[in-house]
Amino acid sequence: MAGHSKWANIKRQKAVVDAKRGNVFTKLSRAIIVAARSGIPDPAGNFQLRTAIDKAKAAGIPNDNIDRAIAKGAGTFSDGNSLEEIRYEGYGPGGVAVLIEALTDNRNRTAADVRVAFSKNGGNLGETGCVSWMFSQKGVCIVEDVMDEEKLLEASLEADADSYEMTDDEVAEVFTEFTNLENLSQTLKAKGFHVTDIELRWIPGNQIEVTDPDQAKSVFKLIDTLENLDDVQNVTANFDISESLMELSL
Hints:
transcription regulation; 4-stranded antiparallel sheet; 9 helices; Alpha-Beta Plaits
């Protein structure tokens, strides 16, 4: 999982820079809508909503926009657009499996955009279920300033985490069942750890090793193209690329 975790870490760093772009505001606002719709529209009792709001505030989204997104999810405000969640699946260069989560008010437009992204970047959009069986959804806590790995292990075990992985100097990702994510986050914080991000992530059960530089560039270009689509919320792929090749390809 090391290569994939390294890529996830790079994506988070990239997201900080990209937060100035309008489509990132759109994605974060839509995440709030989904969270408010799937649970109670009160962040105090809805962990997913609370997390989405925290990310929106960190990106500088105004409170009025956040409140409006919550109201949309709760059904107390409407702008005439009805959003639905759709998952797309396909294959990228070299047979890499790609899973896309989208939120759209026009599924025909989104499907066309996703199909074009695949076809222009050496991939193919597949049928529902063609790759999703390779992934399982996990909760992930990103912890920074980890000075004592043994203490992290003890805290993770206490919180019923599945595993953890050091992805960078003093940065760790701790994995758990998605239903246990709030408990994991609270336990790590109570133990004094600096939890900087909380997310749900699709984890591949098997990985495709990419060793060709041109193929690696094509994979990254496909993922970037998909992530830049306004309706796409998240993109996951099952590639494994060495850090040296990753640095050359980005």
